[in-house]
Structure formats: structure tokens, C-alpha cells
Design goal:
Length: 72
């Protein structure tokens, strides 16, 4: 885990690719009603969501903001 505030090139590319996939799913309104499309997206993309939410982004948040979240 990096404690730097900036993203590495690898993290930026990985995050961009995730948002590219996210945009492809949610850009098309017909996908919203497709249980199969949403389930496939959720299953295939949850590992990256988990990685960024719990590891990468959390470590890059300002300390005061983390303290506020933890006190809620």
C-alpha cells in the first residue's frame, strides 16, 4: 500500500480502464434493466472496486476526512 497522495501510472491506467468499462455499461440505458449485464459487471469489477475503496483511495484521503468518516 502506498501512502503517497498521487497515483502511480499503474493505478491510473487500472482506474481509467475500470471507468472505461463502467462507462460502457452505464452509458447505454438499456443495460440498466438487464440483470445479466449488471450481474456480469458487478461480478467482474467488484475486485477492483474493493481494492480502490479499501486500500488505495482510503490511503490517499486527507487525515481529517478519514477521522470524520470514522467518527460517523
Amino acid at each position: 500500500m502506498s501512502t503517497e497522495k498521487t497515483f502511480s501510472d499503474e493505478e491510473l491506467i487500472e482506474l481509467f480502464e475500470f471507468f472505461d468499462k463502467t462507462n460502457k455499461v452505464f452509458h447505454q440505458p438499456l443495460n440498466y434493466g438487464s440483470k445479466e449485464v449488471i450481474e456480469e459487471f458487478a461480478t467482474s469489477q467488484y475486485p477492483i472496486i474493493k481494492k480502490y475503496y479499501y486500500d488505495i483511495l482510503w490511503e490517499k484521503l486527507p487525515a481529517k476526512y478519514k477521522e470524520r468518516l470514522l467518527s460517523e
